[in-house]
Amino acid sequence: MANNLDKNPELYFNSASIKWLKQKLSNLTIKEFKGNTKLNDAKPGKTEYLDAKRLNGNAPLFIDKPINTLKSDILILWDGSKAGSVYYGFEGSLGSTLKAIRLNPKLVNSFFVYQQLKSKQDVIFNKYRTPNIPHVIKNFTKIYPIYFPSMAVQNKIARFLGNLDTLIEIQQKSIKDYKVIKKYLLQKLFI
């Protein structure tokens, strides 16, 4: 969100006097862990299995492992061709290619930080991954800077961005529905 390492963002949400702090992601974290759930060791159950396929839109798969990831955790794909991809809003048992970051809710709004990380996806891909076999560098959370204002402002920004995400989802669903209608009409029109 910051336009330069030592400057406040260009967009201020009603106040140019709001100061943004800068901290390393690890300083805002209360828990960080790499997933270790292996699908081969699991049986059918009630806990959602979280892997890259699921986070990228595949249908949920439920297994007998304990929940170790909360909806407020930020998930990062740690290994593979899309290493560095950031996800939010999932609860379940974390697969081995992912890492979960649980933030301190007294310091930062996790959805606010997720939006910031998501907005810098290209930076993460280009600057914080290994060049050969893609994976996020080990000390990512210890060196990656997060910029944040007061909790009240974070909450306002998070709510605003969440509302935009909801509108985008609604529009995407409408587009999908219109494509189905168009396909149906074309099939009936050109027999």
Can you walk through the features of this model?
The protein has a domain at 21-150: Adenine-n6-DNA-methyltransferase TaqI, Chain A, domain 2 (Alpha-Beta Complex), CATH 3.90.220. The protein is 34% helix and 20% strand. The protein has 5 helices and 9 strands, in the order E-E-E-H-E-E-E-E-E-H-H-H-E-H. Strand 5 (74-77) and strand 6 (86-88) form a beta hairpin. Residues 1-6 have low confidence and may be disordered. Keywords: DNA-binding, Endonuclease, Hydrolase, Nuclease, Restriction system.
Write the layout of secondary structure elements.
Layout: E1 21-24, E2 29-34, E3 44-50, H1 52-55, E4 62-63, E5 74-77, E6 86-88, E7 93-94, E8 98-103, H2 110-119, H3 121-127, H4 140-143, E9 145-148, H5 151-189
Parallel strand pairs: 3-7
Antiparallel strand pairs: 1-9, 2-8, 3-4, 5-6, 5-8
Q: How much helix is in the residues? A: 25-40%
Strands of the biggest beta sheet: in what spatial order?
Answer: 2-8-5-6
How far the N terminus sits from the C terminus, by CA atoms, comes to: 52 Å
Query: What sort of overall outline do the alpha carbons produce when their principal axes are compared?
Result: globular
Global Rg = 19 Å
CATH architecture of the domain at 21-150: Alpha-Beta Complex
How many helices? The count is: 5
Main β-sheet: number of strands, strand sense, barrel status?
A: 4 strands, antiparallel
What's the CATH class label of the domain at 21-150? Alpha Beta
Q: What is the CATH topology classification name of the domain at 21-150?
A: Adenine-n6-DNA-methyltransferase TaqI, Chain A, domain 2
Helix and strand sequence: EEEHEEEEEHHHEH
Number of strands: 9
Q: Which percent band covers the strand fraction?
A: 15-25%
